[in-house]
Amino acid sequence: MSNIVNEENLNDELKFLSKKILELNKRLIEGEKAKSVFLSLVASKLNNPMTAIMGILPHLKVVDTKKNKLLFELVCKEAFNLDFKIQNMVMASEIESGNIDNSYALVNPTEIVDEVIESLRYLIKDKNIEIKIYNKLKQKAVIDTKKVYLIFRNLISNGCKYGFENSLLEIDLEIKEPMFVIKVKNRGEAPKVKYKPEIFTRFSNEVSAKHGLGIGLSVVREICERLNGTIEYEAEDGFVTFIVNIPLDEKMLDSTTYGSNEFVFDSFDGAIEL
Amino acid sequence: MIEGNSTFIHVGQIHVDYAPAAISTILGSCVSVCLYDRKMGIGGMNHYLLPFWNGNSLQSPKFGNIAIPKLIDNMLEYGAGIKNIEAKIFGGASMNISSQFNMMIGEKNILVAREILREYRIPIVAEDVGRENGRKIQFNLQNSKVLLKYTTKVGNETRR
């Protein structure tokens, strides 16, 4: 009898507290709404012109003087940088809209890493970072290319940006069944935060300004969650290492490309209709 | 037999469509709210993991208090009338974790759905929530019916 009374009390308490949290949370959401609107505006208004610029840039011919070459490099560097920021905002906006799906393809992850390094070549050159890839992959993997590309781009870009000049950045790729494990390690200062999760907070006020907008890592964490994976970081002895674990589904390896819409449901024979 | 598009949604996704179409998902302690405007033949579903946004991460629809208002907004953008919308809610099971440690996530997810739908004055015309089994559901927009099957438990694990 007393157990039933206790359970009823507990349920009432839970309802009361949940309603209180819901009320407080509503104010918090309202207060933060501007950030979401900003993200969505940027995503929709800047993405198309930026895509056009990125498409045109490789076709520009520079009159062959040293000064022109330098200026052109500067334009390319800033364009790549801006495109990267916009891609992060587009992804953040897609995640916030709920209009995002996983789309898998059989790819070689090292090709994605090479593409990312190519897109960051100006930053890498500026800071004279040496990049070493430890590739322990023996096979291609079925992964969501677009999302994994953004994970690599954010982690490698952060490693270069916040790593010391003339230092080494190590990228470790491995499949530890059933996980695809990515490690990005750089020599540099760890983000100055009180609690680890703060560095994955969007537009965090807690993270020092030199550590960016706080959108990149929040996007990476969300992407990892979408892929049923995790992201962790370790900072010790002057090294910062980000570790991403993404599960590889064996069934996925049977096909080259497919989206989750092709998820095969068991039959609904004998199902309840409501 | 489903006619039109058939879409599977994961945690943090929202899908709204016109009939004929179907939307399906698999739920554990997560909750899905299915909304339907019978008059316009518009239906939608979300799938959220946690009841409340934590104020830190993106305002993603993996949180109930983000996912439900967003689903309603999407329904209205598609042309549904707020007064015609009916709701069905599913999920919120207490999964394999001992009740001492699961922080009653399923219960809170259900509670948030009821509370927000009440605020919007959207009637809940059917529900299958709570208990310990996972569920797979398929929302057929052609007749606004939801087919529901419980997932089978094998030992301590829930098989999809």
Task: Give the helix/strand layout.
The complex is a heterodimer of chains A (274) and B (160).
Chain A: H1 2-56, H2 66-97, E1 103-107, H3 109-119, H4 121-127, E2 130-135, E3 141-143, H5 145-162, E4 168-176, E5 179-187, H6 216-226, E6 230-236, E7 239-247, E8 257-259, E9 272-273
Helix pairs in contact in A: 1-2, 2-6, 3-5, 5-6
Chain B: E1 5-8, E2 14-18, E3 21-27, E4 31-37, E5 42-46, H1 64-78, E6 85-91, H2 105-119, E7 124-129, E8 135-140, E9 145-150, E10 152-154, E11 157-159
Parallel strand pairs in B: 1-3, 6-7
Antiparallel strand pairs in B: 2-5, 3-8, 4-5, 4-6, 8-9, 10-11
What does the model show?
The complex is a heterodimer of chains A (274) and B (160). Chain A is an alpha+beta fold and 274 residues long. Chain A has two domains: 2-97, Helix Hairpins (Orthogonal Bundle), CATH 1.10.287; 103-257, Heat Shock Protein 90. Chain A has helices at residues 2-56, 66-97, 109-119, 121-127, 145-162, 216-226, and strands spanning 103-107, 130-135, 141-143, 168-176, 179-187, 230-236, 239-247, 257-259, 272-273. In chain A, the strands form two sheets. A five-stranded mixed sheet of chain A has the order 2-4-5-7-6, covered by helices on one side. In chain A, a hairpin with a 2-residue loop joins strand 6 (230-236) and strand 7 (239-247). In chain A, helix 2 (66-97) packs across helix 6 (216-226) and helix 5 (145-162) runs antiparallel to helix 6 (216-226). The longest helix of chain A is centred in the N-terminal third of the chain and has 55 residues, at 2-56. The model of chain A is unreliable at 251-265 (pLDDT under 50). With 160 residues, chain B is of the alpha+beta class. Chain B has a single domain (5-149), classed as 2-Layer Sandwich (60s Ribosomal Protein L30, Chain: A), CATH 3.30.1330. Chain B has two helices and eleven strands. In chain B, the strands form three sheets. Chain B has a five-stranded mixed sheet with strand order 2-5-4-6-7, with helices on one face. Chain B has a four-stranded mixed sheet with strand order 1-3-8-9, with no helix packed on it. In chain B, strands 10-11 form a two-stranded antiparallel ribbon. In chain B, strand 8 (135-140) and strand 9 form a beta hairpin. Classes of the chains: A alpha+beta (274), B alpha+beta (160). Strand 9 of chain A pairs antiparallel with strand 9 of chain B, so a sheet runs across the interface.
